[in-house]
Amino acid sequence: MILKEHRKGVAMPYWRYWLSRPVVTWGLPGFLLVGLFVALAFLSPRFAHEQNLMAQPIILLVGSQLLAGGLYLLVIWRLSDAPHHRTLWIWILLVGAVMRTSMLMSTPMLEDDYYRYLWDGAVVAHGLNPYAFAPRDIAEAEAGADSVPVALRQLAADSGVVLGRINHPHLRTIYPPVAQAMFALAHGFHPWSLTAWRVVLLGFDVATLGLLIMILRAVKRSPLWLVVYWWNPVVIKEIFNAAHMDVIALPFVLGAILLAISGRYLWAASSLGLAMGAKVWPVVLLPVLIRPLLTDPRRLIPALVLFAALVGAMFLPVYAAGLDRTSGFIVYGHRWEMNDAVFMLILWGVKGLLPTSDGQLIARIVVAVMVGVWIGWLLRGNVVDPAKVCERCLLVLAAVFLLSPTQFPWYYVWLIPFLTVRPWLPLLVLTALLPLYDLRFYFDARGRVEIFDYGIVWVEYLPVWWLLIRQWRRRRPSIALREVAVSA
User: Fold this and answer.
1) Which residue ranges make up each domain of the chain?
2) Distance of alpha carbon 236 from alpha carbon 229, whole angstroms
3) Minimal CB count within 10 Å: which of 28, 123, 204, 259?
4) 147 vs 133: CA distance, rounded Å
5) pLDDT for position 142
6) Nearest residue to 388 (alpha-carbon basis) of 179, 189, 219
7) How far apart are CA 207 and CA 247, in angstroms?
8) What own/partner pairs with CB < 8 Å and gap ≥ 24 does 191-196 have?
9) Could you tell me if 284 and 371 are in contact, meaning their C-beta atoms sit under 8 angstroms apart?
């Protein structure tokens, strides 16, 4: 067998040497990922809102995303062997940028949440409370109705197809005030424009990249690990094609972590409060960030008071509009369930043991207790090492995601920045498996949605849980992918 001299002086088969070359391990996957997303951009008009769901090429979309996830995992697996050259760093940035650019003008595929964003942005931009009225109430309001302000009725007339395409139109909006401000910003750039909204998302995405560079420096890891975020196919598809707003919270969360590890806890609490103004989930990270203050009440109490005051002030418009059965916050928190696995088992157990109409609420309480116990167990000891802080954040968010009654693929975006610091294989595998969620649309269109809800959903999550349990049994403190010491 032909052997080739390895750079460390160890002979290896020529084919293995060839496969280890950067042009193969980085160049080829990068070209293929770009090609896949460019192809999806050309395919996306077949997913237009007017197209019948039966005719949409859902299987082709899912297959492309599964392939992209596989290529991505291959790149991450070989990352520890990558040469630390500036050329490779430029290549990482270029590929991720082209993948994003290819999606900026694409048609959203199988998702329509952005219609709510465009409507809310218009409402806020005109100085109105977006939590006051459900879209259906506005659309059905008669010309002389006093219950709906004239300004809202005029916006409805100006919105074109936007108002009529909002999903769950009987519910008032669920998006917190910081998110609403960003919707309004996009409306200010260009009213009713999906492209303007995507540009706002790109700004937060680039800010996330910059903060990740700072965090990787703080934990003394190579900046090449940014590829975990920058090339992630779920980020590209769910943020830049589907236009989901989850990236908005990330710079505030990462900023809070950087402030906390530098000892500026008051500012960290403020940043985390703003993050909660974009999405509610960052609240679970508060115990991690303030853990070092438990023995210092003089610093702990002001941080908690500031966080509570900031969150309370931001949510005043929500409270003022009322929290009834038309509030998206109430309905989502009480009964929303989708693409879940473990929560489904918990719900079955609750209904089996306690036959009650409040099974959903009780199951959610059980999950909240489980997450609370998990956080308490993680925080048994105080740590100040930045890498350990990020690891704790990742473990908290992983529990929230995997136990949640709603496990949409775009929620996975919350975890990905932390995977740049702790690239854990079981959680990275979700990148390749979560695209199976789109099969729900395929079976729903054919009246067989139960095939997904009670079958395919387990294909998404059983491998993840198997890997987690397998590595837990080995009692390895670090469940990260194989890696070597690298310098930042």
Assistant:
1) 16-109+224-240, 114-195
2) 10
3) 28
4) 10
5) 58
6) 219
7) 10
8) 191/122, 191/125, 191/158, 192/118, 192/122, 192/158, 192/159, 192/160, 192/162, 193/118, 194/108, 194/114, 194/118, 194/243, 195/104, 195/105
9) yes
C-alpha distances (whole Å) from 221 to each of 259, 313, 484 are 19, 38, 10
Q: What is the pLDDT of residue 21?
A: 58
Q: Compute the chain's Rg from CA coordinates.
A: 23
Query: What contacts 161, CB < 8 A, 6 or more positions away?
Result: 49
CB 420 within 8 A of CB 226: yes
- Cα–Cα distances in angstroms (integers) from residue 312 to residues 230, 290, 305, 309, 336, in the given order: 34, 19, 10, 5, 24
Instruction: Report the distance separating Cα 101 and Cα 41, nearest Å.
Output: 10
Please identify every stretch of the chain with a pLDDT value under 50, giving residue numbers as ranges. Answer: 1-8, 10, 12, 14-15, 17-18, 477-488
At 11 the pLDDT is 52
| pLDDT tens per residue, range 57-77 | 999 999 999 999 999 999 998
Calpha distance 253→244 (Å, rounded): 17
Does the global pTM surpass 0.85?
yes
Q: Report CA-CA distances (Å) from 234 to 109, 165, 239.
A: 13, 24, 8
Q: Give how far the C-alpha of residue 168 lies from the chain's centroid of Cα atoms, to the nearest Å.
A: 21
Residue type, 72: Y
From CA 463, how far away is CA 444, in angstroms rounded?
24
pLDDT in tens, 419-455: 999 999 999 999 999 999 999 999 999 999 999 999 9
Provide the pLDDT for residue 385.
87
Q: How many residues does the chain have?
A: 488
Q: Count the neighbouring beta carbons within 10 Å of the beta carbon of residue 136.
A: 16
